[in-house]
Amino acid sequence: MSRVELVGPDQAPLLARAYYPEEGQASPIVRALAQVPELLEVAMPFIARVFGPTSVDLRTKEIVVLRVSAINGCRYCVDAHTVAAWDAGLTQAETAALRGPVAGFSTAEEALVAFCDAFCNTPAPVPEDVMRCFRTHFAEHAIVELSLLAGATAMLNRFCTALELPTTPATRARLEAAM
Amino acid sequence: MSSASCTAGTLAAAIDAGRVADRLWLYSNYHCNLHCVYCLTESSPRADRRLLASKDMIAAADEAVALGYRALGVTGGEPFLVRDMPERLAALAQRLPTLVLTNATLFARRLLDRMRPLADLPLSVQISLDSAEPQINDQLRGPGNFAKVVEAIPRLIDMGIPVRIATTGDHNTADEMERLCALHRSLGVGDDDHVVRPIVRRGRAVDDRLGVVADAKDLFPELTLTVDGAFWSPFAPTVHGGRLDTDLLLTRQRLPLHDPTRALLALADANPAGTDTTLNIR
To answer: Is residue B4 included in any domain, yes or no?
Structure first.
């Protein structure tokens, strides 16, 4: 299914081995990037830092990742981050809503979703009225961080969709169990 | 301090401490006129050539000088299937002492004439010879190999080109090894220039489960460049089933050389001291 060879653990290059767990499979993103270990070596710490725990709470961050991924139509990222969003405290109704017209969120989160929608409307800047509303709920440093998160998400959306990376069996199982 | 000079200082210290090799290896090509049973790279006349361009080899040599590598090695495949190999070797040996590995089956008069200028440069030739018994050697390396090798070695030495002999495998009994040593001495190659190493179970050797299994900790770190990238050791960029092995790949990027060198040094530091010495795969 993948458009590139996903490197298995037996062929994982030296710099990539740390990203292959002893039990279970490395993610398809890791297995694709392992083709170029020097890029994997810098990309994965970047991804881990941007998508992992920071000063902005994970629920807020998963709203950004899932919304941007849904707008960009990335099946891999929507699947992976629907599950990640559940783990970050979003309900199934909330993750479903982020894939369509948004309702049932707080005013701050609706401002965040409006920011994400505008963020994906490239190449235009985010409109001033959207920014103004966004600013009333989020500090300057959080705006920078969430913008980088949205941008990193869009990058991975294109990477995963263009290369048709497969949803992992573990993610698929959790999605099917929730149906 | 630039990252390149930082890497140079670290490299010099690591070489002096015996943590990494002082030699940069270059895979010129992967095809070969032979089809040896234990070949790491599944080389044969029909193998994918994977040619490393002359300008890339020379650029790597220039950077090797700047970084503080102290020697070069050229291997393949059979390097002398590359048409301009004598001229490439001259360019490399003008930069650093160079060792080229060959099966020595292609040294006809015209090629030897083109190699004559190499006698004035720090160039050595390492020739594979696996047995003093022609039949045993040729079973491993191909029909007629033994006769060509024992003819080529004195010719090279007479031209003033130093020769080393490499014996691969542990098939020789003590008596057979003694006869092999007597043979190489009679050909003009001393004991210090005869290396014996095990077959490494990679490439074609996997199919018949020959030799020893070796991972990074079993192989001395010797930066090795091929057309596919930079690797841990000359025993690393192997091919099995027609596919390049990437388990000992360092970086896809070859140049600037300080990038793969930095990766090699970082990984070598993570290896416990002395871990490569058990199998003596050099």
So the answer is: no
pLDDT of A31 > 60? The answer is: yes
Contacts A–B by Cβ distance under 8 A: 39
The chain B residue lying nearest A18, using CA atoms, is B267
Q: Who among B216, B253, B259 is closest to A14 (CB)? A: B216
What does the radius of gyration of chain A's CA atoms come to, in whole angstroms? 17
Total domains, chain B: 1
CA B246, CA B231: separation in Å to the nearest integer? Answer: 8
Q: How far is B17 from chain A (nearest CA, A)?
A: 22
Please tell me the distance from the alpha carbon of residue B35 to that of residue B31, in angstroms, as a whole number.
10
Cα B243 to chain centroid, rounded: 20
In order of start, what are the domains of chain A with their CATH numbers? 9-51 (no CATH), 58-178 (1.20.1290.10)
Nearest-by-CA chain A residue for B229: A36
How high is the pLDDT of residue A175? 98
Question: How distant is the Cα of A7 from the closest Cα of chain B, in angstroms?
Answer: 9
Q: Quote the domain boundaries for residue B249.
A: 26-270
Least Cα separation, residue B19 to chain A (angstroms): 17
Quote ipTM for the complex. 0.90
Q: What's the CA gap between B241 and B249, in Å, rounded?
A: 17
Give the residues of chain B that fall short of pLDDT 70: 1-3, 274-282
Q: What pLDDT, in 10s, does the model give residues A78-137? A: 999 999 999 999 999 999 999 999 989 999 999 999 999 999 998 999 999 999 999 999
